[in-house]
Amino acid sequence: MTHRKPRTLTEIYASLRLSAIAFVVLTLGTLAPSAFSQNCALCYTQAASSGSRMIEALRSGILVLIVPPTLMWLVLAAIAYSKRNQFKHAHNLPRPASDW
Fold first, then answer.
1. What are phi and psi of 17, to 5 degrees?
2. What is the pTM for the complete model shown?
3. 59: nearest Cα among 3, 91, 50
């Protein structure tokens, strides 16, 4: 078990401040109106001029393009999470024999 030095109150406030700033930036970036207006002009005109079958095909095509990379990312994150503690510390290694 690794012993860590206790964090000071200043260090705790600094990390909380950084977390709060990151949260605000990510929230504003996600909720900005310009983030929702990134539509492909070709997709929009094709969908507007086509029938309901074409719109449904476009929706399923979008799902086909989004779902596999998302699932791959989740699998990689799960593997990384499960392997996070599988490394050896120097203090856990066997000591060499000193009687050689």
1. -65, -45
2. 0.41
3. 50
